[in-house]
Write a structure and sequence with these properties.
alpha/beta; binds zinc ion; 8-stranded mixed beta sheet; 14 helices; hydrolase activity, acting on carbon-nitrogen (but not peptide) bonds; hydrolase; globular; Urease, subunit C, domain 1; 8-stranded parallel beta sheet; Amidohydrolase; Metal_Hydrolase; Amidohydro-rel; 461 residues; single chain
Length: 461
């Protein structure tokens, strides 16, 4: 692998809480950062690619901790907007469309989602793939890894699944249901085939049953056993309105239910958690369980605003996620950093709390996400860590008046346009408005063609 020297970067943000390094170089080799310093030209090996860092503010790559790539194929459908319906009515409308998805749809929607993530500075993506229509076959996760290889993205596959039939209270159509045995067997298969525990791994797998209301108890119990046996992360949706249902069925709210099954701890993180009490958050903090906060669904659903500063103060591990396009029509984690910050500013007034520091939101989207995924080699820029970074050229009118504080810039001002450079594992995958190794036009055409095999080109459904 070739070496890359980012030379004379205007500012290097190594992490949200470290001092900014002004006018520094970054040297990368074999997928890792080997040095950060004021003048590294002499340390660079012969033949190293040189990138002119003039005007560039460089940051650790963003880490997306919750998404549903397949939902990219149902974006911008105002007629389906779940704010118009009860959740059950909405599910009845959206799931028949999800049930049509083919194996190719999963591949191309992954390409679409990862492309947008990369354009906006995300270098590691976790996807919670829980949609397995029977006709789509058994290679959906494999096709997602294929898409990640194509895009050059560091990819964590959350192998989701649903086991409870509708007749027993599930909200998932039976054509997407699996047995616990089939779910666990395929989790084991994809872990064995793809999960790489080594430093700088480009592929990892998590066991991620969709949500407790759509699975049998045994599915969660066996997920815990498998994840512990294989040494992988656990993930699910928790605290998004289902606790009363779980209490009715299992006699306790979701956090207690998950903890009683062992589905909690430093190797576990939940998505959402907006309905949780302070006592539940304290239990999660004591166990070490983390939270993937998805700010944009909160706007759309009008749900209670998750108290992120309170979670932080309790010591909970917090990361950020886009969530799927059914509850956020974009895959732009950079946008989510800004929206999460603005949402907490809004809430701080009614809580009579101080406005939270913008730096915290960059930290959630980088080191916080890395922690949720169990990674110590991503989320910050330091020698020995992965060469995963993004850069913005601040020599634009957009940034006049903002350049004195690169750390706050991301959350407080927000980065509206695509970034100018994204590097993953030491390889430039996005630069100056193009994917240097890919034909975006051809990928667009292939994705559109596949989309129209299941949905018409007009707005009708
Ligand atoms: Zn979700």
């Amino acid at each position: 692998m070739t070496a890359v020297l980012l030379k004379g970067c205007a500012a290097v943000v190594t992490s949200a809480y470290d001092p900014v390094l002004w006018d520094h170089d970054i040297l990368c080799q074999d997928g890792a950062i080997t040095a950060i310093g004021p003048d590294l030209a002499r340390a660079a090996p012969a033949g190293a690619e040189i990138i002119n860092g003039a005007g560039l503010f460089v940051y650790p790559g963003l880490v997306n901790t919750h998404h549903h790539f397949f939902q990219c194929f149902v974006r911008n459908r105002a007629a389906l907007d779940w704010t118009r319906y009860s959740v059950i009515e909405w599910l009845d409308r959206i799931y028949p469309i999800f049930a049509r998805l083919t194996e190719d749809c999963f591949y191309h929607s992954a390409v679409v989602a990862m492309a947008e993530l990369i354009k906006h500075g995300c270098t590691t993506a976790f996807d919670h793939q829980y949609c397995f229509p029977k006709h789509a076959g058994s290679r959906i996760i494999d096709r997602q890894f294929e898409a990640a290889d194509l895009m050059g993205m560091r990819f964590h596959a959350g192998r989701g699944g649903n086991t409870l039939p509708k007749s027993e209270g599930s909200t998932i159509p039976d054509e997407m249901r699996e047995t616990t045995d089939a779910f666990i067997a395929d989790c084991a298969r994809v872990i064995d085939a793809y999960h790489d525990p080594a430093p700088l791994a480009m592929r990892q797998v998590a066991v991620a049953p969709c949500q407790p209301v759509n699975c049998y108890r045994e599915t969660f119990v066996e997920s815990v056993a498998l994840a512990h046996d294989k040494g992988v992360i656990l993930h699910s949706h928790v605290g998004e309105g289902e606790s009363p249902v779980i209490e009715q069925v299992h006699g306790m709210r979701t956090v207690d239910y998950c903890e009683s099954l062992g589905f909690a701890g430093p190797d576990t993180f939940y998505a959402h958690c907006w309905e949780l009490s302070r006592e539940e958050l304290q239990k999660m903090a004591a166990a070490g369980t983390g939270v993937a906060h998805c700010s944009e669904p909160v706007y759309l659903v009008g749900a209670e605003i998750t108290d992120i500063p309170a979670m932080d103060a309790l010591g909970l591990r917090v990361g950020l996620g886009c969530d799927g396009a059914a509850s956020n029509d974009n895959s732009n984690l950079m946008h989510c950093v800004h929206s999460a910050y603005m949402l907490q500013c809004l809430a701080s007034a009614s809580r009579q709390d101080p406005v939270p520091p913008p730096a915290a939101f960059l930290a959630y989207a980088t080191e916080g996400g890395a922690s949720l995924l169990g990674r110590t080699d991503i989320g910050a820029l330091r020698p020995g860590m992965a060469a995963d970074l993004f850069a913005i050229d601040t020599r634009k009118l957009d940034y006049v008046g903002t350049r004195h504080d690169p750390i706050s810039l991301i959350a407080k001002v927000g980065i509206g346009a695509p970034v100018d450079l994204t590097m993953i594992n030491g390889r430039v995958v996005w630069q100056n408005g193009a994917f240097p190794h890919l034909d975006e036009g051809a990928l667009f055409a292939a994705a559109e063609k596949t989309l129209h095999t299941i949905l018409p080109q007009t707005g009708g459904l």
